[in-house]
Design a protein that fits this description.
four-stranded antiparallel β-sheet, seven-stranded mixed β-sheet, globular
């Protein structure tokens, strides 16, 4: 069973940047066709997919994340990071890391990390 731990959230001003990191364990990265992803859930809204990345580093992005967010994985550190640039107040949400073997990944979840974008 993969264990996921997010870090890197916090308070940032509009236009700023944050980098979230998801530490995995349990040998998940060595499994075939593994997929990692980041989701977010804003207050009063449903959880939505932000970005995904496969074992061979093919990535997908939600429209709101394109050209602002970058997802990448490190198969040595066993992490998946989400670099978020030009943040907007509407990006405020709890961000969750997820892992699985299908798209979108949903087999395992982290506890979430709060991102707040405010002046």
């Amino acid at each position: 069973q993969v264990h996921l731990v997010e870090s890197g959230g916090g308070l940032v001003q509009p236009g700023g940047s944050l980098r979230l990191s998801c530490q995995t364990s349990g040998g998940f990265f060595s499994t075939e066709r593994n997929v990692m992803g980041w989701y977010r859930q804003a207050p009063g809204k449903e959880r939505e997919l932000v970005a995904t990345i496969t074992a061979n580093s093919a990535s997908t992005y939600a429209d709101f994340a394109k050209e602002r967010f970058i997802i990448f994985r490190d198969d040595v550190r066993l992490t998946v990071d989400l670099q978020m640039n030009n943040l907007r107040p509407e990006d405020t949400a709890i961000y969750y890391c997820a892992a699985g073997h299908a798209y979108p990944p949903s087999g395992a979840w982290g506890q979430g990390t709060q991102v707040t974008v405010s002046a």
